[in-house]
Amino acid sequence: MQIDLQGKTILLGVTGSISAYKACELARLFIKAGAKVHVVMTPSAERFVSALTFEALTRNAVLSEKTETWSSELNHIELGRKCDAFIIAPATANTLNKIAQGIADNILTQTALAFRDTVLLAPAANTQMLAKTPTMNALTFLQTNHYSIIQPQDKLLACGDVGSGALAEPIEIFFEVAKALCKDTFWENRPVIVTGGGTREKLDEVRYISNFSSGKMAKTLCMALYLRGAEVTYISTMGFEGLPLGIKTIEAQSAQDIFTATKEAVEKVSSQHEVKTPYLFMAAAVADFTPKETHRGKLKKSALGESWNVDLKQTTDVLRGIDKSAIKTVAFKAEMDSMEGLANAVALLEKKGVDAVCYNLLEDAKSFGGDENEITFIAKETQIALGRSDKLTLASKIVNEAKKLLSKEISDV
C-alpha cells in the first residue's frame, strides 16, 4: 500500500542525536512516496551523519552553517517557503527548548522560527532530559501552539537507560507527516469505524468455514481515513500489519465477534461524539451461516467416516442488529450476478437501512485478494462509478463520496 505524496515538498531537520542515522530512512520513505525532500542540519548533527549522505538520498543540497547562501534559495528563509511541512527528526531536548523559547542560534532553529506552515517534532533524548521540568514545559507549550509532537518510544536507549526517549520508528514519523499533509477538516477528529476481513466460523479447534476476502479494501480505507485525520477504529479478522499505530485495532474471528465489537464501538462513538457525526464502513465479509455446534479439540477423520454433514444456522445480521440512528453507514456488496447484482446492491439501502452501498461485481474467486478493485458508490439519489484503480486510490474516492452524505456539515466546514 503506497501512500502518494506527489507534488509535496518536505523539509527534514536533523539535530545532534545518536538516532540521526534514522533520518536517512525517513528521507527515503518520503522520496519513495513521490515527495521532494530538502534537509537542514545543525552543526552537531554532522558529527553523526554527513551532509553528503542526505544529498545522495535527496539529490538536493543540504542547508547547513557552511552552505547557507543568499544568492540562491539555500538559506533559512527561502528554503522554508518552498516546503509544505517541516519535520525535525530527531529533535534533541536542546532543540525542543530552544524552539519553545524562540531562540534561533543555529541554522536549524533559525529555519524553524521562520517557517510558517506545519512543523512536526520527533523528540529523541535521554529519559531524564525529557522528563526535566524545562523540557516538559517546552513540550506542553509547543503542543498548545500548533506544533505536532510525535511521541518517542519506551525502550533501552543508546546511553543504557530504559525509558521514554528513543526516536519513534521512521515509518510512524512518515505516517504522521503524511497525515499533516493530507488532513481534511471534515474528517479531522471524526470517529470512524471500519470492519474488514472474512469471518472464520469454527467447526472444531483447527478447522473453520470462511471466504476468500483478503481484507485489503478495508485496510486501505483505514489508511485513507487516517491520513485525513479521522479517529479510526478497525475491527477485522486480518490485515493489521503495516498500519499506523494511531489506528485503534480490534481483532475478531467469527460473525458474532464482528457483531459484538461493531455494536459496542457504534454505541461508544454515538454517545461520546456530539460535534461530528460518526461513520461506519461495513467492509467485512461476514458469514451468513455458522455451525450449530463447535466441537472441542480436533475431530478425527477416521471417526467422521467418508462424509461429514454439518448443520448450520444463520448468523446475526450486523447492519440490521445495530442502532444506526446517530451514524452514517456505508455498506459493501460483492456480487457475481451481472444481471441482478446492481439491483441487489441498491436494495440494501432500504433493506439494511444504510446511507450508501459500495457495489463490487466479481468474476470469480480469483477476483479476491488483488491490489485493484472496481466500485460503484450508490446513495439514495446517485450512483457514481468510481472506476477501476489500486485500492488506496479507490478508498480515497469512496471517502470523498462518503463525505457528501453529510452536506450540512460540509457547508459548515
Report on this model:
By secondary structure, the protein is an alpha/beta fold. The chain has two domains: 9-181, Flavin prenyltransferase-like (Rossmann fold), CATH 3.40.50.1950; 184-299 and 308-404, 3-Layer(aba) Sandwich (Rossmann fold), CATH 3.40.50.10300. It has 15 helices and 19 strands. It has helices at residues 22-32, 51-58, 78-81, 93-101, 107-114, 127-131, 133-143, 170-182, 216-227, 255-272, 301-304, 318-321, 341-351, 391-403, 407-412, and strands at residues 9-14, 36-41, 85-91, 118-123, 148-149, 153-156, 162-166, 191-196, 201-202, 208-209, 231-236, 248-251, 279-282, 289-291, 312-314, 328-335, 356-361, 372-379, 383-390. An eight-stranded mixed sheet has the order 12-11-8-13-16-17-18-19, with helices on both faces. The protein has a five-stranded parallel sheet with strand order 2-1-3-4-5, with helices on both faces.
